[in-house]
């Protein structure tokens, strides 16, 4: 079923609000216009999936948010660097991360040492998560329930936050 004229009219009437929301997500005018266009196309392509008497604006904004999140994840995956060093020292650090400064180097080595002090049941899933693996991939690799993996990563993150609370 194609988009009806009333559907198209409602979508067009939301363009201003959608552009504001897109700009809030992207903080860039050109990216906001691209996101708006992608959202309009996706909404029109999926007009048959919209159920009448539901929140139209919420439905459209959810589409926009999901497109933004998917694009962000795609960019993050393509920007991930595979660290070949033995201690994973440079893992996912940007070029301007401050790692070359004495303070940055000292902090990174402290964090690496703290992670290495974790018991294996926390260190392995946390390290995999930092390396870019998704929770379900870690659970499958370790042959553990998804909830266990999430709680272990959460625990490891809490331990690091507590240990390095002074650095915030």
Structure keywords:
168 residues, mainly alpha, 68% helix, elongated
Query: What does the largest sheet look like?
Result: none
Helical residues, percent: 55-70%
Query: Care to count the β-strands?
Result: 0
N-to-C span:
53 Å
The SSE string, one letter per element, is HHHHHHHH
Give the overall shape. Answer: elongated
Enumerate the spans where pLDDT stays under 50 for 5 or more consecutive residues: none
- SS element count, helices: 8
Radius of gyration: 22 Å
Decide which structural class fits the backbone.
Answer: mainly alpha
**Average pLDDT figure:** 80
Give the DSSP E fraction (strand runs of 2 or more residues): under 5%
Summarize the structure in words.
- The protein is mainly alpha-helical and 168 residues long.
- 68% of the residues lie in helices and 0% in strands.
- It has helices spanning 5-13, 15-26, 29-45, 56-79, 102-117, 120-130, 135-142, 146-163.
- Helix 3 (29-45) packs across helix 4 (56-79) and helix 6 (120-130) crosses helix 8.
- The radius of gyration is 22 Å and the shape is elongated.
- The model has no long low-confidence stretch (mean pLDDT 80).
What is the gist of this entry?
The protein is mainly alpha-helical. Helix content is 68%, strand content 0%.
Topology:
Layout: H1 5-13, H2 15-26, H3 29-45, H4 56-79, H5 102-117, H6 120-130, H7 135-142, H8 146-163
Helix pairs in contact: 2-3, 2-4, 3-4, 6-8, 7-8
């Amino acid at each position: 079923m194609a988009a009806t004229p009333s559907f198209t009219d409602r979508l067009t009437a939301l363009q201003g609000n959608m552009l504001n929301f897109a700009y809030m997500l992207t903080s860039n005018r050109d990216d906001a216009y691209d996101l708006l266009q992608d959202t309009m196309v996706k909404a029109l392509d999926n007009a048959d999936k919209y159920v009448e008497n539901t929140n139209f604006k919420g439905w459209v904004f959810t589409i926009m948010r999901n497109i933004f999140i998917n694009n962000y994840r795609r960019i993050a995956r393509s920007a991930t660097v595979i660290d070949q060093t033995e201690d994973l020292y440079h893992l996912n650090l940007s070029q301007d991360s401050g790692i070359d400064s004495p303070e940055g180097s000292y902090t990174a080595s402290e964090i690496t040492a703290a992670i290495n002090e974790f018991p294996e049941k926390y260190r392995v899933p946390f390290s995999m998560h930092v390396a870019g693996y998704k929770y379900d991939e870690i659970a499958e690799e370790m042959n553990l329930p998804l909830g266990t993996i999430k709680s272990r990563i959460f625990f490891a993150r809490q331990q690091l936050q507590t240990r390095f609370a002074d650095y915030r």
